[in-house]
Design a protein that fits this description.
The chain has 9 helices and 18 strands. By secondary structure, it is an alpha/beta fold. Helix 2 packs across helix 3. It is globular and about 65 Å long. The two termini are about 40 Å apart.
């Protein structure tokens, strides 16, 4: 990002020139690395499924050439992208580390240099010839998180990300302390990396609030082509028990739409058995999202929709973790 009359905006080839100024990248202990720069560069607010596919294909096409990969990404939608790639990259057995910065890397006080250096080191880290973190992760401010467990929690702090419901994969101090018990193991059988199809059309987020009207909710859930809904509920997965609300939920599920119950709280889990409100949602066919994030919910729905499954099997796949995205 560079300053312009309209604010910060991405500039082609600017990053490559900045790399020459980071002396630590030339250290003999750093892994060898190469740079792939997309064209056009985008503010992360403009990132969509097309960009996830492009990232996935670049990794797939170079998969045999490198020990690991670092994805430099704007912070605003980084958790969405890290979640999406965690599902898309099927048979992944190497590190893919997302990172970025709150202050652009060309600015004097940037946090980007340290994030980049550490991300490269983690992407190349191996023990007994095997990668240390063979999954999609997110590195920010000396903490390594599972990518599909992250949420951007601050627009102004350098410590911008949290993983409220899953422990750190590593903490960076004088040494990098890996939490091996939290890191996903590599697949037991090495198979070719595949980039799964994502279907963005037909997925919606509905956030409940006190006083939400039947007319507005019915309009959202009646949208043509709707296939999956992330329903952001209160607390442990609670929602109104009005007759019209529960009937609308049943009608939506009966149409073959997958409805996933996700809590609006930052931490904690949906427990639909605790309260009458949650049990009535479950009886209507709504699926528990447990402690999944909204970012992972949306991208997992896109991933599952891309497989062209029957509604029943789609519901089944959403109800169980496939990439460690929630805890049963």
């Amino acid at each position: 990002m560079v300053p312009t009359e309209l604010g910060y905006a991405p500039k082609k080839k600017y990053f490559s020139s900045l790399l020459d100024e980071i002396s630590q990248l030339k250290n003999k202990d750093m892994p060898n690395w190469d740079v792939v720069e997309f064209d056009p560069l985008l503010d992360s607010a403009n990132v969509a499924v097309e960009q996830w596919v492009n990232i996935g294909r670049e990794i797939r096409d170079r998969y045999h050439m490198y020990d690991g990969f670092v994805v430099l990404h704007g912070t605003d939608t980084m958790s969405y992208s890290a979640s999406a790639l965690s599902f898309m990259l099927e048979n992944l057995a190497k590190p893919v580390v997302f990172t970025g910065s709150q202050i652009p890397i060309g600015v004097l006080r940037t946090d980007g240099r340290e994030n980049l250096i550490t991300a490269i080191e983690i992407a190349g880290a191996r023990i007994d010839g095997r990668p240390v973190v063979p999954e999609v992760s997110l590195l920010f401010q000396n903490r390594l998180y599972r990518g599909n467990r992250t949420h951007k929690c601050s627009a102004g702090e350098l410590d911008a990300f949290r993983s409220y419901n899953y422990p750190l994969l590593a903490e960076v101090g004088v040494k990098i302390a890996y939490n091996f018990g939290a890191i996903a193991p590599a697949p037991p059988v090495v198979e070719p990396l595949r980039v799964a199809r994502m279907a963005a059309d037909g997925v919606a987020i509905v956030k409940l609030f006190p006083g939400i009207s039947e007319q507005m909710l019915r309009a959202m859930l009646s949208a043509e082509g709707l296939q999956g809904v992330v329903l952001e509920t209160y607390g442990a997965g609670n929602a109104p028990t009005n007759d019209w609300f529960l009937q609308l939920m049943r009608q939506t599920v009966e149409r073959g739409v997958t409805v996933l119950n996700v809590t609006q709280c930052d931490s904690g889990s949906v427990e639909m058995q605790l309260y009458e409100t949650g049990q009535q949602l479950r009886a209507a066919g709504v699926i528990s999202g447990y402690d999944i994030t909204t970012e992972a919910s949306v991208t997992k729905l896109m991933y599952v929709m891309g497989k062209n499954l029957t509604p029943n099997y789609r519901h089944e796949l959403m109800a169980r973790p496939v990439k460690g995205e929630f805890t049963l």
